[in-house]
Design a protein that fits this description.
Length: 359
Amino acid sequence: MNISKIVKFGIMGIVTGVLCGVAGADQGDKTTWLEEARADEIRSLIHDVLADADSRASFLGADSPTTVNVHGFIQSRWSYNDIKTDGVDTTHGFNIPRTRLELSGDLYDWGYKVSGQWNDGGNFTLMDAYADWGNFRVGQFRSPFMKEVLTAQTDTLAAERSVISNQFGQGRSQGIQYGYNTSFGGVSVAYTDGFNTANGAGVQNGYALTGRVDFRATDWVEFGVAVSHNDLVATDFNTWTADATFSSGDFDFTGAYVATIDDTNGDDWGTVWTASIDVTDKAQLFGQYEIGHLEGVATDLKIATVGVNYAFNSNVKWTTDVGYAFDSVDAGWNLGTSGWNTTANEGETLIRTQLQVTF
């Protein structure tokens, strides 16, 4: 039922009640000129109110230049973490890492998106808040750098993005972006406050210049490369990433590499390799291996993850994965909400099972 019908039915219900009240009050009395005048006024009122309802409903109707779309998702997860450290117990339990609400639509020839998220502690954080006009985007968004970070959270293979993407990824920031896309790929450039500066976090009168190029060589091979210079006054660094995806039928394979060049803190790097295959129209098997190096850390990050995705329908997805850390996980790594814990010993195991509902 559209807005116009709802308004009309509501008005007619109110008016019907009024008329019944008038009829009840005057029952048994003879019709007088006053009653006829009252009836004429009510009919005129109905006509005017319905006409106003039509005009207001048409403003948000199918042909309206202003639209509002409401979407979002909920992720409910159970995890089990076994740390191979004497005296440290395993941990397990439920949590809701993300509950997100998204509003998007058009404002005449402009597009917009606003989204916010409740974390497991109940705190609400603004995520996206931007306007699109032509090829330009202004506001708070993910700048064009790592492909894994640009992939929507609901479309990731594993329950969480890789630790490598948490460490080296661009996150969200505030600024302006220009993008141009063709059937063979696209080019995007952005001027922002710097990586991971959403909602003003860590902004030190700094800036970042970021550019990404995507190229589709064939129907089954895609390449991407991006570079960024971050000048945050207190620290500045250059970073770059490259990725390639091979797709054949139900099989996909992606490799990505990212590195930072920092004269002060040294050079860090990471790589992520993923493979997936659709075994049925609802089930997908996947594997992921990530390696990372931080300057000054004795052991590199080495994590392998295997899992399965099962789509009950287009809006409900169940993901279960098992990860194993071959070496210790240093405290220098940004683990985010991945479920991994820092440890001085090798052999950490992480099991995650998650139900995701989108609307």
